[in-house]
Every structure is written in C-alpha cells, then in structure tokens.
Specification:
The protein is 6% helix and 38% strand. The protein has two helices and eleven strands. A hairpin with a 5-residue loop joins strand 1 and strand 2. The longest helix has 7 residues.
C-alpha cells in the first residue's frame, strides 16, 4: 500500500513559490462503524469557486464532512478494508459518522449497505488493491490504474478482496442531475 506524501505549495510575501506543508496529511479519520474501519485522510478542502489561493493555512484541518460545500472541493485518500461475507452493517451510523446528508434509503441498501449518492462530481483513481463499484444496474471491477468519473450517481464501494483498496479522490460540488428531478 503506498504511503501518503502530501505537498502543498504557496507563495511568500515576495510572490515566490515555496512549500507550505510536506507531511502525511494531518486530518485523518477512521469510520469505525464501517466494518474493518474505513480510513480517510483529507488532503485539501476548498469552500469557494474560484478557489482562494492566498492563504497559508492548512485547509484540510476542518471537521470531517463527506460532501463538498456549495462551490467547494475535497481532495482525499481512502483505504477501503476487505468485507467479510455475512457481516451486518448499520448504514445510518456509517453515514452519520461520515457527516453525510445523503444516507442510503432502504431500497438502496438492498444492493449494498453503502449504496449512496452525492451532489458532486467525483474523480477517483485506484492506487492499490481491488474492489467493485456497484451501480443501480451492474457493477465494475476496479484495479490499480482504474480512473472513475462519478457524476452524482447511486454507487457503492465493495471490497471483496483480502487487502485494503486505496483510492485517491477529488470531489467537486455539482448540480443535481436532471434525471433525478
């Protein structure tokens, strides 16, 4: 599994470029209600568009929130643990701990406990491991190098393997798809 090496750049008072932060990410959350513990590291967050690039503050250190704010973005690192057959999950508790308003409905949970949608367009890259992306219709196997563009659709992440699946994700606030009313 690759290690996180976060590098955040900025400018000094003369407008010269410099490295503001070089670390392993400082805002780490483990979602204990997810069996095996879903690990999330917030790498950067913006709350506006266009993004403010004048701050030297670590914008990743705000309280954890699953979805970006209106006009915002989130850059995060996720480690999905393997799932065991027959495990029971409390989807409500998981999404409460994730800080998400987009909790799975009973119908969605029939596909998988984590089936949900966000009001964002998400760009994801699988770095290591393997998992399934379950959709309303079908599923696809994701492996290292898989690049996903998630356009506010219902989806679930299911790791049926024996090792964690590591994913880098960028979430960008989006408008609700017209097909959803």
């Amino acid at each position: 599994m690759p290690d996180i090496h976060r590098v955040v750049t900025g400018h000094n008072e003369k407008g010269q470029s410099l490295v503001l932060f070089e670390d392993a990410g400082t805002n780490k959350v483990t979602i204990d209600s997810w069996p095996g513990g879903l690990k999330i590291t917030e790498l950067w967050v913006t709350n506006e568009a266009p993004a403010n690039m004048d701050s030297d503050a670590d914008r990743s250190t705000r309280p954890f929130q699953h979805d970006p704010v209106n006009g915002g973005t989130i850059f995060r690192w996720l480690e999905f643990p393997p799932e065991s057959q027959g495990e029971s999950f409390d989807a409500g508790a998981i999404f409460t701990q994730l800080g998400s308003e987009n909790k799975p409905t009973g119908e969605m949970s029939q596909k998988h406990f984590s089936m949900h949608r966000t009001d964002s367009i998400d760009y994801l890259v699988v770095l290591s491991g393997q998992m399934q992306m379950v959709m309303d219709e079908g599923e696809v196997t994701l492996r290292p190098g898989s690049c996903i563009v998630q356009q506010g659709t219902n989806h679930a992440w299911v790791n049926r393997g024996s090792e964690p699946c590591v994913v880098a994700a960028i979430l960008v606030d989006g408008a609700k798809p017209a097909a959803l009313g």
